[in-house]
Design goal:
Elements: H1 2-14, H2 17-46, H3 51-88, H4 93-107, H5 109-116, H6 118-131, H7 151-181
């Protein structure tokens, strides 16, 4: 009986509104910070690298982001949806609506990536394929590429889109923070 009570109490603490909000905020700040840091720090530092190394390093950074960001964004989205649902049938439904907006902003990172970044990601991935077999210090022949499709131009375009994508979970975190600390109960 005691262990069932303790486990029930533990579950209630884990899924309490403050705990859910705190975990969601922590994950969102990590996502937004990581995505924004890649655009602001990684891309400019790679601009002097040979294009073969440039696209390979992009692929490494992109692969890490794909592995980390979507799961964290989905967990945060579900946390905000949980908070929104719990408040939707109370007198405090406006706070629930703000949490729903936070969920939408946070979750939109995935469709933004799939829709808005698909073309640039595809072109950069094809550059990675072209770079295979070359030493990382060798330059790829990009003379036949259309204007705006060089490795550097694609990476710069990707950085702007990635920065924009990073603002989505940041907006979700701001909305969630506002709902938690500035909206009255």
């Amino acid at each position: 009986m005691t262990s069932a009570f303790l486990s029930g109490t533990l579950i209630a603490q884990i899924f309490s509104r403050p705990a859910v909000h705190e975990k969601s905020e922590q994950m969102l700040i990590r996502i937004a910070g990581g995505v924004l840091a890649v655009s602001y720090g990684f891309v400019p530092s790679m601009s002097q690298a040979p294009n073969t190394l440039l696209v390979r390093e992009w692929q490494t950074a992109y692969g890490r982001g794909v592995a980390a960001a979507p799961p964290l964004a989905l967990v945060s989205t579900f946390c905000y949806l949980y908070l929104s649902y719990n408040l939707s049938f109370t007198l405090n439904h406006h706070k629930g609506e703000m949490y729903a907006l936070a969920a939408i902003a946070t979750g939109s990172i995935v469709p933004f990536t799939l829709v808005c970044m698909k073309t640039v990601n595809g072109k950069l991935n094809s550059k990675v394929e072209k770079s295979k077999g070359l030493h990382r210090s060798e330059e790829m022949n990009e003379s036949k590429d259309k204007k705006g499709d060089s490795s550097q131009e694609l990476l710069n375009r990707w950085a702007v889109l990635n920065f924009t994508r990073g603002l989505l979970p940041f907006a979700g975190a701001c909305l969630g923070f506002y709902a938690s600390f500035f909206m009255t109960s």
